Amino acid sequence: MSKKEKLPEDQDQDVSTDEPTEDAPAAESEGELGLLLEDARAKADEHYNQVLRTQAELENLRKRSARDLENAHKYALEKFMLELLPVRDSLELGLAALSDSDNVDPAKLKEGVELTLKMLGDAMNKFGLSAVDPQGEKFNPELHQAMSMQHMTDVAPNTVVNVVQKGYQLNERLVRPALVIVSTGGPAADESKAAKAAREYGEPGTEAGGEFDQQA
């Protein structure tokens, strides 16, 4: 074999041994991608489970809130009813005493009714319910409802002279207006009438009314 024929063989052998292979880096890249994919899949599963748990907690919270709201509406007056029970007990005891006794003492009966009424008033005040009793006060259309007008000369106009039915406020919010009778006329009205007459006919000594004839 000649040297010219052997030289290409040697060169081919050198080139083939020195060139890097491409299969190894490709395999490493595929392995890294596989690991990254597995890691991403694990994180996605973890996040999905967290979302499911959060949704379950929100649903439980919604149901619990709805149940608490329903109970609040149903038993909102429970404490108020507990305060009213002694009033009912007192009334029942009073009726039982009237039924068992032939001789009823009016003084004791009045005392029992007053005590029961006081218990009822205390229970109402405890929960912010206050009475509107405007006897002798100036008429207020925001709190009072006039049933009729009564002409009175000794009371200022627009004054409540009689309370037919008390009104009530719940925490300063009007629940029921007071039914009242309001005065008309009165000293202020009479004074205004006198002033009006003086303006129309003039005071003594003025041109409109003239002076009284002293000799007459």
Molecular structure report:
With 216 residues, the protein is of the alpha+beta class. The chain has a domain at 128-203: Nucleotide Exchange Factor Grpe, Chain A, domain 2 (Roll). It is built from five helices and six strands; from the N terminus they run ααααββββββα. The protein has helices spanning 3-18, 23-74, 78-100, 106-126, 186-201, and strands at residues 129-132, 144-151, 160-165, 167-170, 173-176, 178-184. A three-stranded antiparallel β-sheet has the order 1-4-5. It has a three-stranded mixed β-sheet with strand order 2-6-3, with no helix packed on it. Helix 3 runs antiparallel to helix 4 (106-126). The chain is elongated. It starts with a helix and ends in a 15-residue tail after the last helix.
| Widest β-sheet, arrangement of strands | 1-4-5
Q: Oligomer, anyone?
A: single chain
Q: Helix-strand pattern, N to C?
A: HHHHEEEEEEH
Report the principal-axis shape: elongated
The secondary-structure class comes to alpha+beta
Q: Please tell me the overall pLDDT.
A: 80
